[in-house]
Amino acid sequence: MDNAVFREENARRHRRRRRQALGLVLAVLILVGLGTIATSVVGLVGSLFDDTDLMKDFENRLQIMVMFDPLPFDSLEQADQIMLREVGIWGALYGELETSGSLDAYERDPETDCIILPTLEVDATLTKLVGPGFSVTHESFEDDGMTFTYLEDKQGYLIPITGQQGRYTPTVVKLTRGGGKMRVTVGYIPVSSPADDFMGATTATEPVKYMDYIFEKTDSVWYLTALEESEMQPVNAAASDTADQPDAVDSSIAPEQQLQGAANDGVVSSVPTSDASAQTDESAAAEPASEESSDEAA
């Protein structure tokens, strides 16, 4: 009888230990699971508030527009229509260069060898920025000394054989949501030119001014609707003042040196033949005169 009681008690102890061990394992698994869930939740919440990718997307979409430094506008209808056409044109060309590395796919005018850019590509590029509800009127126009001829029969623009370098490149510094709109605060960083490098100008790395681009969502996509001056001001006010002034020229460097330096950097491709010849003739005429003066002095 005692042996039976002992065996029963021993069996109960074993069952109790197994239950305790199982409970411990379950507790550990629950803690691990809760930790994993907590980590996932923290990561998810962090990703919801991390706007890095969205800010980068806005920078890419606004690159061409910032290049033209447009004036503020309350609606797309009030915006500079020529500027919007150029945004579509250069955006399409730059997009093609990024995709294929060249512009060889475009048809060229046999007389001028200029690219004929289809208006369909201009419209598609502009739509990515302002949405499908807005379109520009296609016609010939001139801006900044360049003429863009609209070819009705080709349904495209005759693009001048030249490049386009803007004054600024964008950096998105803040996104503000409210009232169904997205306020994208963009810093304008000056773009250095070869002439600036020659003149020894310091390349700016901080924005010299800020503008607020207003976006509204349509079909889950943010589209540009307005442009406003930003309340944010640059840290260096002097840099901001300089950005609004014409490019300064160092008077301590002779004009000939400035032209030569710019030519070496590709800004000036050549000096007009007549001017070069005149300078050569003047130099040649000046040398004998100096020799005669030396002889007379002797």
What does this molecule look like?
Strand 4 and strand 5 (156-159) form a beta hairpin. The strands form two sheets. The chain has a five-stranded antiparallel beta sheet. Strands 6-7-8-9 form a four-stranded antiparallel beta sheet. It has helices at 2-49, 52-68, 81-100, 119-130, 194-199, 237-243, 255-264, 273-297, and strands at 107-108, 115-118, 141-143, 146-151, 156-159, 168-178, 181-190, 209-218, 221-229. Helix 3 (81-100) packs across helix 4. The protein has 298 residues and is α+β, with helices and mostly antiparallel strands. The protein contains eight helices and nine strands.
Architecture blueprint of SSEs:
Elements: H1 2-49, H2 52-68, H3 81-100, E1 107-108, E2 115-118, H4 119-130, E3 141-143, E4 146-151, E5 156-159, E6 168-178, E7 181-190, H5 194-199, E8 209-218, E9 221-229, H6 237-243, H7 255-264, H8 273-297
Antiparallel strand pairs: 1-2, 2-5, 3-4, 4-5, 6-7, 7-8, 8-9
Helix pairs in contact: 3-4
Shape assignment: elongated
**Main β-sheet description:** 5 strands, antiparallel
Uncertain stretches of 5 or more adjacent residues: 197-201, 245-298
The total of beta strands comes to 9
Q: State the separation between the terminal residues, measured CA to CA.
A: 147 Å
The percentage of residues in β strands lies in 15-25%
Q: What is the helix fraction of residues, given as a range?
A: 40-55%
Q: Radius of gyration over alpha carbons?
A: 34 Å
H/E series, N to C?
HHHEEHEEEEEHEEHHH
How many H/I helical runs?
Answer: 8
**Oligomeric state of this protein:** single chain
Structural class from helices and strands?
A: alpha+beta
- Strand order in the largest sheet: 1-2-5-4-3
Average pLDDT for all residues:
76
